[in-house]
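Is this the right way to post structure tokens for a design question? Let me know if I should format differently. Anyway, here goes:
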């Protein structure tokens, strides 16, 4: 057991931050927050703050990355040095490369990339404050930013994690649960088709625990999806 592990993660049915096991943290999404970007979004989720900026379709540099039959969807996930409790060294590292890659793979199935051959769609995801679950926050923000850029999409992609803490399955882990918990299962879904476009796992679940966590994360994603839709309705629903 790691030093600093809480004695109990759940007391009288409430988690350390007062939530029920199946309750996600408060989430707010705003579309179109950056004037210079073609599309953008800000997501505040628990203690996480992410801003996503989408540019494109535009010319591909370096040119050899261009694909003759579709646009390349490039995600650049970056954590600000001040976003975490210990200063994060600025710049790309293995973790940010991994998260950029899985984010791109989570979003690619919904974007009509074949409409824009030989171009790039670039999405920059900046994490301004991190409190566990930044990849899910980033995917959620990036998908609203792409929609805000007016790029045709089959659906939005919401993301949410579930995990295991003190032997219990809970949704949307907070900082301390993520640090000291036994397992974490971030997931992204394509609600219209029911497809899963991100599924990662850290730690161990029994098969029945996995099933429960999977269902909880899926329900969490569906809740996030509603907030994503509302963000777009708030911006575009008012345009007559
Ligand atoms: O953020 P996410 O849960 O998607 O990814 P993670 O690699 O499992 O990181 C979990 C959490 O650890 C982050 O959300 C941050 O709060 C924290 N973290 C940190 O404090 N310093 C880092 N260099 C990386 C992550």
């Amino acid at each position: 057991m790691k030093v600093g592990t809480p004695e109990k993660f759940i007391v009288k049915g409430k988690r350390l931050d007062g939530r029920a096991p199946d309750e996600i943290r408060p989430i707010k999404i705003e579309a179109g927050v950056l004037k210079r970007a073609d599309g953008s979004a800000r997501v505040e989720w628990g203690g996480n703050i992410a801003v996503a900026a989408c540019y494109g379709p535009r010319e591909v540099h370096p040119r050899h990355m261009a694909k003759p039959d579709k646009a390349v969807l490039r995600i650049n996930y970056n954590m600000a040095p001040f976003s975490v409790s210990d200063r994060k060294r600025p710049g790309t590292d293995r973790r940010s490369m991994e998260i950029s890659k899985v984010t791109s793979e989570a979003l690619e199935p919904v974007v009509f990339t074949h409409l824009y051959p030989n171009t790039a769609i670039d999405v920059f995801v900046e994490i301004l404050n991190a409190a566990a679950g930044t990849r899910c926050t980033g995917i959620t923000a990036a998908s609203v930013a792409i929609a805000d850029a007016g790029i045709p999409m089959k659906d939005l992609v919401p993301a949410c994690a579930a995990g295991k803490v003190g032997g219990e399955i809970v949704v949307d882990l907070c900082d301390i649960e993520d640090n000291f918990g036994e397992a974490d299962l971030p997931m992204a879904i394509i609600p219209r088709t029911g497809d899963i476009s991100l599924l990662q796992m850290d730690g161990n679940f029994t098969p029945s625990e996995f099933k429960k966590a999977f269902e909880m994360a899926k329900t969490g994603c569906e809740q996030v999806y509603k907030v994503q839709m509302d963000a777009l309705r708030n911006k575009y629903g008012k345009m007559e």
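Format looks fine. Someone answered above. Worth noting: The pocket of cytidine-5'-diphosphate is lined by residues 84-85, 88, 95, 130-135, 175, 178, 186 (CB under 6 Å). The chain has one domain: 19-236.
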